[in-house]
Design goal:
Blueprint (H helix, E strand, L loop, with lengths): L10 E7 L4 H14 L9 H4 L1 E3 L5 E3 H4 L8 E7 L5 H8 L4 H5 L2 H5 L4 E2 L21 H18 L2 E8 L16 H9 L8 H11 L4 E3 L9 H9 L3 E4 L6 H14 L3 E11 L2 H6 L2 H19 L5 H4 L3 E8 L8 E9 L5 E9 L2 H21 L4 E2 L22 H16 L9
Parallel strand pairs: 1-4, 1-6, 4-5, 6-7, 7-8, 8-13, 9-10
Antiparallel strand pairs: 2-3, 9-11, 11-12
Helix pairs in contact: 1-4, 1-15, 7-9, 8-10, 11-13
Bound molecules: nicotinamide-adenine-dinucleotide.
Length: about 425
């Protein structure tokens, strides 16, 4: 049945936490360049992908569902450094000068609001552009005010909040995260051990009726209290951890091994990267958050309990090494030990020389645009259909995450079809 979707009228404010980061500045520059016709939005599903319709016609997704047009997007956000987006993009050193200069005027006027920050949650960072507020509840209230003020100042009809800031330290889920009442009590009593700054941003966004997207592996909205709050406020939440490079490869290769019934005895993944993200992840507590996110993928796809002979004993290791000379140009190596007929071993080596932010930028944009669509279609809570974009797809306790990229792609298309009341075509698409 066709869902009622409010049209994408007026302006959409995209408020990015970590506005001056590599992913944010690359996403913003590319979006501004695309709407001026200076660059193609390559890698963006919302802008470039097509789908077959019931009648056999192939259409662009953006012509099938009412997505916000890039011309109607306004950017803003927060960072712990005061640089405007142009200066921050120069520092991030992802894009060439000619690409930045082409939209310099627009980038320079996007300036970060002061951040909600706690050094204990990202020990390698020392920013000064920070709200002089210690108490978590007050932090959250100040962020709510920022969102409201931005909306008025920029004449926005809607706002979405995207976390593209540094990965926080690892914390396990605890009693304070289990219900909205418990979470609010912990925020009000300023329990800094269990309430991260990112939770303050997420709570503020949801309270203001704005979708919240978690691009890092932080626990943040991946807790029952936030699921409850987002449903109560009729707001979508999505995440977590952009699936940009090495994990993208894993979620393509692992389903191939499984479909062919080939066994796997080991999978060793290592990376070097030299951007600020790499520096933050060099701290063991911050790396732990990323490691948990990266490790969960292959077990879920292989289903070792169903196929013990093939995947009952996979040795899986993930390493990230901070190596400054590489900057944003990450290099990833995977060594996969597989076995075939009669148990004979084989090896596969993958060497991916990727550009981290070039891969992540369109994912960030797509997550925002699809969450804004979900908001207008009254789809609240976790948006599992957006698992396609995430390394560690959020799911409730009674659900299993889906990691296989091809099943995830199907989920995107089926959800979009359901929204407009279309059936799948009878042939493969
Ligand atoms: N690039 C990728 O391919 C990729 C993939 C998956 C996830 N991620 C995640 O996305 C995030 C951004 O990556 P990046 O390469 O742009 O990192 P980055 O270090 O360049 O940018 C992060 C920005 O966040 C800011 N920041 C940190 N804490 C903040 C806070 N509390 N409030 C406001 N701003 C804050 C930093 O000052 C910095 O400008 C990281 O968490 C990273 O792990 C990136």
């Amino acid at each position: 049945m066709k869902q009622e979707i409010k049209p994408a009228t007026g302006k959409l404010g995209i408020l990015v936490v970590g506005l001056g980061g590599a992913v944010s500045t690359t996403m913003i520059t590319g979006t501004l360049a695309a709407r001026k016709g200076l660059a193609k939005p390559i890698g963006s599903i919302s802008q470039m992908a097509t789908m077959k319709m019931e009648d056999g016609q192939e259409k662009l997704i953006k012509d099938i569902v009412p997505l916000t047009d890039l011309n109607n997007v306004v950017f803003g956000g927060w960072d712990i450094f005061p640089d405007n987006v142009f200066d921050a993009a120069v520092y991030a050193d992802v894009l060439k000068a000619k690409d930045l200069l082409a939209v310099k005027d627009e980038l320079e006027v996007i300036k970060p609001m002061t951040a909600a920050f706690d050094h204990n949650w990202a020990k390698r960072l020392n920013g000064t552009h920070v709200k002089p507020i210690e108490n978590r509840w007050d932090m959250m209230e100040a962020l709510r005010k920022d969102i409201r003020d931005f909306k008025v100042a920029n004449n926005c009809e809607r706002v979405a909040v995207l976390w593209a800031a540094s990965t926080e330290i690892y914390i396990p889920m605890s009693d304070e995260h289990m219900s909205l009442d418990a979470l609010e009590a912990a925020m009000k009593s300023d329990n800094k051990d269990v309430i991260s700054p990112s939770m303050c941003y997420a709570y503020a966004a949801i309270a203001e009726g704005a979708p919240f997207i978690m691009g890092a592996p932080n626990l943040c909205v991946d807790i029952p209290a936030m699921w409850e709050f987002s449903k109560k406020m009729d707001v979508p939440i999505a995440g977590k951890d952009f699936k940009s490079g090495q994990t993208l490869m894993k979620t393509v290769l692992a389903p191939m091994f499984k479909t062919r019934m080939l066994g796997v005895s080991g999978w060793f993944s290592t990376n070097i990267l030299g951007n600020r993200d790499g520096e933050v992840l060099d701290d063991p507590d911050n790396f732990k958050t990323k490691e948990v996110s990266k490790l969960s993928v292959i077990d879920n796809i292989f289903e070792p309990e169903k196929y013990p002979d093939l995947y009952g004993d996979v040795y899986h290791k993930v390493r990230i090494n901070y190596y400054p000379p590489r900057k944003d140009n990450k290099e990833a190596w995977d060594n996969i030990d597989i076995f075939g007929w009669m148990g004979y071993p084989m090896e596969i080596k993958v060497n991916f020389l990727c550009r981290d932010s070039i891969l992540a930028a369109p994912i960030a944009l797509d997550l925002v645009l699809f969450c804004d669509l979900a908001l207008r279609a009254h789809m609240s809570g976790i948006q599992t259909w957006l698992s396609f974009f995430c390394k560690s797809p959020m799911h409730e306790f009674n659900q299993e995450p889906v990691h296989d990229l091809f099943i995830q792609w199907r989920m995107v298309k089926e959800t979009l079809r359901n929204m407009i009341g279309e059936k799948s075509p009878s042939y493969l698409d």
